[in-house]
Design goal:
This protein has 2 domains: 403 residues, no CATH class; 136 residues, no CATH class. Helices cover 68% and strands 6% of the residues. It contains 21 helices and 5 strands. Strand 1, helix 19 and strand 2 form a beta-alpha-beta unit. It starts with a helix and ends with a strand.
C-alpha cells in the first residue's frame, strides 16, 4: 500500500469527489426515476431476477437468495442480481434506487481504476486527475436513455468493467508483471460473468494480444502470463457458461442469428454502413460533443506544451507503444465484432468507450513525456496542473448539469404517472377479486404495460410480488388469429389500443391492429371496461373479467 501512503491527499480528494458523485446521482435517480414505472423493456428481466432473489432471501435467508442468483438459468449475465441482493440486504429493502446505485458504484470503480493506472504508469498526478475528470465527460451514462446509468441493464456495467479490465491490461506492462497479469484475468472473469456477450470481445482481444507478444522480446514468458490470465478468467466464468450453455445458445445463436425473430430485426446494413453505424454512434451518442471538444482542447494544449517546453537534456522519453496498442485493441476489435454482427443496437456500443479514452490519455502521456517540467521551466508544470484542474472542473460541471437536467417533459411525466395509476388499479382489482396469478394480454409491444412490467411496477410500489402471467404478446411475430382470440379469452386483464398513429412497428403489432375491431367488440360484450386512459399519445382501454355473482 505504498501508493496509498504516497498519494494520500490525492486519494482523499478523489474519495470526497466520488462520494459527492454518488450522493447526487442517488438523489436525482430516486427523485426522477425510481418513483416511476421502469421504462425500457430490457431492465425488467434483471429487476425481476434481483427482486426474486431478495424475496427468496427474506423467506429462507441470505444464503438461499445467494444460491438462487448463482444457480439460476441466465441468458446474458449472472452477477447483476448477486450484487443487487447484497445492496438490498445492506439497505434493508429492495428498490430501484438501490439497484441503480450499482450502476454508479461500478462507474466509480472504473474512474478509480483510471486514476490509479495513469498515476502509476506516468508518475504524474496531473495526468491522473485528467483521466479522473475525463470519465465524467462521457455523454451516454448521463443521457437518460436505454443502457444509460439510470437503466438497470447490463450495458453500462459492461462498459465500466471492460474499462477496469483495460486498465489492468495496461498495468501488466506488456505482461511483464505476473501479479497484474493475474489481476487482468480476474477483471476479465468478472466482466464475463456480468455480461456474457463480452466473451466475443475478449476472444479477439486475447488473440490480438498473443500475436503482439509473439512479435516482441521475451515472448514466451510474457505469453505465459497472458495464458495465465486467460486461465483465471476461464476458471471464473467457465462453469457458469457451461451451466447456461443451452440458454446462451438459444438466446445468442438462435435469437440473434438463425431464428425467425432475428430475421425480423435485421436492419440490412452492408459492411461499410455497419462500420459507419458502430463508430458513428460511438462518437455522437456515447462519447458526445462535450467530450469531443474537451479532448480536442486538451490535445491542442498538450501539443503546444510539448513544443514550447521541449526536452533538451538528450534523454529519450518512453514510446508508450504498449499503452497505445492495448488501447487500440480495446476499442477497435470489439468495434469490429459489433460491426460484423448482423443486428445493430446503438445502446451496446459503450464497451468501446474505455479504449477510446485510453487512446486519448496515451497520446497525452506521450506528449507530456516530451516536455520539460524541471525547475527552470516551472511554468510548464503549472500549466499541466491547470489542465488537470480544468479537466476535473469540466467533468464535474457536465456531470452535475446532466444530473440536474429535467428527466422528462411534462407530457412524458404525465404519461408515466398514468402508467403508475393503471398498474395500481390492476393490482387492487386482482387483490380484491382474489386473483393470485393474473393473466394479461396487451395488443401492442410497448415498454410500459405488459405482464413482466406490471409485476415489477407493482412490486416496487406495493412491496408485494404478484405473478402476472403473460398471454400476449409472446414475441414480435404474428400468431394464428384463432390463437390470439383463445388467449384473450383466458385473460383476467386485457389492454386494447383504441387510437394510435400508424399500425405498429412489429408484425405482432400490425396483426393486432388488423384484428382490433373484432377484439374490441368481443371485449365490450364479454368483459368489464375498468377505465380508458391516454399514454404517450395513445388512447387505451383496460378490461377485466366480470365479477362472478
Amino acid at each position: 500500500m505504498n501508493w496509498l501512503r504516497t498519494d494520500r491527499a490525492l486519494w482523499l480528494a478523489a474519495a470526497v469527489l466520488m462520494v459527492a458523485e454518488f450522493s447526487l446521482f442517488d438523489r436525482m435517480t430516486s427523485r426522477h426515476h425510481a418513483s416511476l414505472y421502469p421504462r425500457w423493456n430490457d431492465q425488467i428481466q434483471y429487476l425481476t431476477e434481483a427482486y426474486t432473489a431478495y424475496e427468496k432471501s427474506r423467506a429462507a435467508g441470505f444464503g438461499a437468495g445467494l444460491e438462487h442468483t448463482l444457480t439460476k438459468t441466465a441468458l446474458q449475465g449472472t452477477l447483476h442480481d448477486t450484487a443487487a441482493l447484497c445492496v438490498f440486504t445492506l439497505a434493508g429493502s429492495a428498490s430501484r434506487s438501490a439497484a441503480l446505485s450499482l450502476n454508479l458504484l461500478v462507474f466509480l470503480a472504473w474512474q478509480a481504476a483510471l486514476l490509479f493506472t495513469v498515476r502509476r504508469l506516468t508518475g504524474s498526478r496531473a495526468l491522473a486527475w485528467i483521466a479522473f475528470g475525463l470519465a465524467l465527460c462521457v455523454a451516454f451514462p448521463w443521457s437518460n436513455q436505454p443502457g444509460s446509468a439510470v437503466d438497470f441493464r447490463l450495458d453500462h456495467a459492461a462498459m465500466c468493467l471492460l474499462g477496469v479490465a483495460a486498465c489492468a491490461a495496461l498495468l501488466t506492462d506488456g505482461f511483464r508483471r505476473t501479479g497484474w497479469s493475474c489481476a487482468f484475468g480476474a477483471a476479465v472473469g468478472v466482466t464475463l460473468l456480468t455480461r456474457f456477450l463480452t466473451g466475443a470481445y475478449f476472444a479477439v482481444i486475447f488473440v490480438a494480444l498473443a500475436v503482439w507478444l509473439l512479435c516482441g522480446a521475451d515472448r514466451w514468458r510474457r505469453l505465459a502470463r497472458l495464458a495465465a490470465a486467460g486461465a483465471i478468467a476461464a476458471a471464473m466464468a467457465g462453469p457458469v457458461f457451461w451451466h447456461n450453455r443451452e440458454a446462451i445458445y438459444t438466446y445468442y445463436w438462435v435469437g440473434h442469428v438463425t431464428g425467425a425473430e432475428s430475421a425480423a430485426r435485421l436492419p440490412g446494413l452492408d459492411a461499410l454502413h455497419s462500420l459507419q453505424f458502430v463508430f458513428g454512434k460511438l462518437a455522437a451518442l456515447h462519447l458526445g460533443a462535450f467530450l469531443g471538444w474537451t479532448v480536442a482542447a486538451l490535445t491542442a494544449a498538450f501539443a503546444l506544451l510539448a513544443l514550447a517546453a521541449r526536452r533538451r537534456d538528450g534523454s529519450t522519453p518512453p514510446a508508450r507503444r504498449d499503452w497505445l496498442f492495448v488501447a487500440a485493441v480495446f476499442v477497435l476489435l470489439p468495434g469490429l465484432v459489433l460491426s460484423f454482427h448482423r443486428q445493430k443496437s446503438e445502446f451496446v456500443l459503450g464497451v468501446l468507450v474505455p479504449g477510446a479514452l485510453l487512446l486519448a490519455l496515451g497520446l497525452w502521456a506521450w506528449l507530456a513525456d516530451r516536455a520539460d517540467f524541471s525547475g527552470a521551466r516551472r511554468w510548464s508544470a503549472r500549466l499541466l496542473g491547470a489542465l488537470a484542474l480544468g479537466a476535473v472542473a469540466a467533468g464535474a460541471t457536465f456531470f452535475v448539469q446532466r444530473q440536474l437536467a429535467p428527466a422528462y417533459d411534462a407530457d412524458s411525466l404525465a404519461s408515466a404517472r398514468t402508467v403508475n395509476a393503471v398498474s395500481d388499479r390492476i393490482f387492487a382489482t386482482a387483490k380484491a377479486r382474489h386473483i393470485t396469478d393474473p393473466y394479461i394480454a396487451v395488443d401492442q409491444i410497448v415498454d410500459y404495460l405488459d405482464a413482466p412490467i406490471l409485476a415489477v411496477t407493482c412490486y416496487e410500489r406495493k412491496k408485494t410480488w404478484m405473478n402476472f402471467v403473460i398471454q400476449l404478446p409472446n414475441s414480435i411475430l404474428e400468431e394464428k388469429d384463432e390463437a390470439v382470440f383463445y388467449k384473450v379469452k383466458l385473460c383476467h386483464f386485457v389492454v386494447l389500443t383504441d387510437q394510435m398513429q400508424g399500425n405498429g412497428y412489429w408484425p405482432y403489432d400490425r396483426q393486432m391492429r388488423r384484428l382490433y375491431p373484432q377484439l374490441k367488440a368481443w371485449c365490450e360484450a364479454n368483459l368489464e371496461r375498468l377505465e380508458s386512459f391516454e399514454i404517450y399519445g395513445r388512447k387505451l382501454s383496460l378490461y377485466t373479467q366480470k365479477p362472478r355473482s
